[in-house]
Specification:
Length: 176
């Protein structure tokens, strides 16, 4: 049997139901879950949520591929060929970290060049560009009016990714 894992994209919010169907079909699967406190009107509860929303991981032999992709709630098998495989070591590290109590949580992918907004602190609401991804995120912010920039180091929880820049106004562009 191939020792690598494959990702199944599943119907939104149906990850646990897909896992039940995979279990009934005797297919090896893994759904990494993390704990999140949720405040309801009358109490606080701890919910188990998928670390990778919309995905369940599965290992199978090629003859079982139809059984896997025909599972209720499965949209499709992600990718084709060896490039789509996820190593056993990578999945075991995730499993071990969650078991050991590490606080893994979903986070949008952040790459150099992405536009982000600062979520907290003195620069809350300010938008900038990620320029470095070493220990934290180095974000370049522009000082309006003089077209000068400065960098700020932030942590992943301090930023949100943006898809577009705000429209420039006549006041925000200057000619020197």
């Amino acid at each position: 049997m191939d020792t690598s894992w494959r990702a199944l994209q599943v119907v939104a919010n149906h990850e646990k139901r897909v896992v039940q169907h995979l279990t009934a079909r005797s297919l090896e699967h893994y759904l990494p879950l993390y704990s999140q406190k949720s405040h309801w009107t009358d109490r606080t509860v701890v919910l188990e949520r998928p670390l990778f929303p919309g995905y369940v991981f599965v290992r199978f032999i090629q003859p079982n591929k139809f059984t896997v992709v025909s599972t209720p709630g499965v949209l499709h098998l992600v990718g084709n060929g060896p490039a789509a495989a996820i190593s056993c070591i990578e999945m075991e590290k995730i499993r071990a970290a969650l078991t050991a109590g590490y606080r893994l949580q979903p986070h949008p992918r952040v790459d150099v060049g992405m536009r982000v907004r600062i979520r907290s602190g003195i620069f809350e609401g300010t938008e900038g560009l990620v320029t470095d991804l070493r220990q934290g995120y180095k974000v370049v912010l522009a000082l309006s009016g003089v077209e000068q920039c400065f960098s700020l180091e932030v942590q992943s929880h301090d930023i949100e990714t943006l898809t577009t820049w705000p429209a420039r106004t006549a006041n925000s562009s200057s000619s020197h």
